[in-house]
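Format is chain and fold; as here:
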Amino acid sequence: MNATLIRRGLLAALGLWALTCLVLAFWWSHEPEAFDPAARADARAEAMGHEPVTGFTTTATLIELAETLLDKRGGFLSNDVFPPGVLLDNVPNWEFGVLVQVRDMARVMRNDLSRSQSQSAEDPDLANAEGKFFFDNSSWMFPQSESEYRAGIRLMESYLQRLSDPQRSEAQFYARADNLRAWLDAVGTRMGSLSQRLAAAAGERRMDLGLAGDPGATQSTRTASEGDVRTPWTQIDDVFYQARGQTWALLHLLRAAERDFEGVLRNKNALVSLRQIIRDLEPTQKPLWSPVILNGGGFGMLANHSLVMASHVARGNAAIIDLRNLLSEG
C-alpha cells in the first residue's frame, strides 16, 4: 500500500512538473514587442539629467536591445541546460539574431563612430564592451553569458554617461556620412548572407561567383562552377528565427540612426531612402499564425515562410545598397 502511494505521488509530481514546463515553455516562447527608440532615449536622458546629444539615441538603443535579451520573458535562454529552456530553440535563435546586430553595432561604434579618424585612440569603454558582447552565447557557468553581457551593458552606459556630459569631451560620437556607410556595409553583408540562407530552405542551384568580375583573382582551392544549395530541414526554423531576431534589432537601430544622422541624411537627400529600408523590413515582424515554419514549394499548395522572409530581407538589402551609394556619391 505504501509503495503504491509512493508511486502515485511520484507520478503526480512528475505530471505536475511536466505541466509546469509546458506552461513555462508556452509563456517564454514570445518575441518581445517593438519599442520607440527615440522615446526610450529621451526617457533615459531625462533620468540621467542630460540632453540627448548626437549619438545618444543609437547608444541608448543598443543598450535597450542588450537589456531586452536578458530581461524578457524567461530571461536569456540560449545557455539554458535544464527544461524547459533547453527544449526551446526558436527563441534562442531569435536571441542569436539580435545578438549579431548588437555585436556589429558595438564593433562599428568602437572602430568608426567614436573616432575622428583612423589614427585616433579608441574609447576604452567601447573597446571593452565589444569583447563582452562577443562572449560565447551558450556559456552557462564560469562565467555565464548573462554576466558578460551585463558587463558590456555597464560599459556602454559608462560611455553614454560621458558622451552626454557637457563637462566631458573625451567621449564622442561622429555622425558623418562615412561612419554611417561603415555600419551599413556591415549590415549589408549580414542581410546578403541571411537572404541566401533563407532562400536555400527550398533548395536551389547556384553558380560560383567567388571570382566573378576580376580576371586576376584567385582562390585557395578549386570549386565546382555550380552546385545545389539546400538548408537542412532541421535548421530551417533556426535560420527563420535568426532572421526575425536580426531584422527586429535592425529596425530599432535604423530608427535610432534616423535621428542621430538626420542632418547627414538631409544633406545627402537620403532621409527617404533610410525610411524606405525601414518600410521594406517592417513586414518581417508580422505575426506568424502557423505553429510551425512551413517549407512548401515556391508555387505549391503550402506557404514557404523562409522564401517570404528572404523576399523582405532582400528588398531591404537592396535599399541599403542604394543608400550606401547615395551616401558615397550624393
Summary: The chain has one domain: 32-203+227-329. Residues 110 and 126 are 5 Å apart (CA to CA). Strands lie at 204-207, 226-229.
